[in-house]
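Q: Got a minute? One more chain.
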Amino acid sequence: MSKRGQNEGSIHKRADGRWAAAISLGYKDGRRDRKYFYGRTRREVQEKLTAALRDQQRGLPIVADERLTVGQFLARWLEDVVKPARQPGTYENYAKDVRLHLTPALGRHPLAKLGPEHVQAMMRAKLVAGLSPRTVQGIRGTLRTALNRAVKWNLVARNVATLVDPPRGARVERATLTPDQARQLLDAAKGDRLEALYTVAVALGLRQGEALGLQWADIDLDPRTLRVRRSLSRYDGKLRFKEPKTAASRRVIDLPGATLAALRAHRVRQLEERLLAGAKWQEHDLVFPSRKGTPYEPSELREQWYKLLKRAELPHFRFHDLRHCCASLLLAQGVPARVVMEILGHTQISTTMDLYAHVMPAARREAADLMDRVLTAQA
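A: Always. Here it is, folded:
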């Protein structure tokens, strides 16, 4: 065994011919904790040890296991961090990015040696393969979230995903309705079995799952309020109720008069349906159930929605876009952005402004007229 050199730290040659070095990480559970480095030559090990000591002096974490691959870490992150704490839909989205994109492209790389150049090459390859910039942004976002955990666990010294700029994509113009078009839509929905659902979506900006998860116990017709406390979605092949998307999504919304009237009429219609269904009715206290009282299938709503658009002679857009319409209509009427944020259940006001600050031309003209009156009065 060769002697270690001066100021080299603990370096020695193993019986198998490899060189090894050790650095002290302090004490853990009353025992000294060491980090080991291995290499084929003394110089290789010394360079690793020197870099580790430099990082230690700078207060950076020392990588715990150089053999851990990106794929192994991502699998552990999904099972130990995401699955227990996040919504099933969120877990499925992360798992899809990991399975289809991150593991095939980066999984074999040692986590400790993953660099921004690897992330950049992966993103470029995805764009060349035909994925949209928005999709690639999402893949990078998943990796960034996972590597944040790796930093907390002292598995890496930095999050390399943050060192790579996301691809730029054309800003998506979100579908919206003018006030006249909103009235046109609701006029076409009069008498429809789901008239109240469309009214709620336009007036309150509920997410589709939030609307389909509503129960009559969530609606108080006297003080005219509605509580959002769960959502309906399909995952693992089954319709399931789940907690709202975020803590801010659990909210209480005041009901406009038109929405209140639509819900009252809908309640009467539903009682008639229940009598017709008889023993086939399954009571779940849902505001918008199927004709048998069971949770309403989102795919069926999509079909009915497109039929309504055709009757209303309006352009094709998603049911979810009614959420954007609600926000735009509120902002166009001068409702403060923070109030709109609370109605929509956003966590941050920046999200509201970024997504929905595209007010209508009429509102911009009104703002200009108001400023003109102020300036004229001062003159």
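A: The radius of gyration is 29 Å.
Q: Perfect, thanks.
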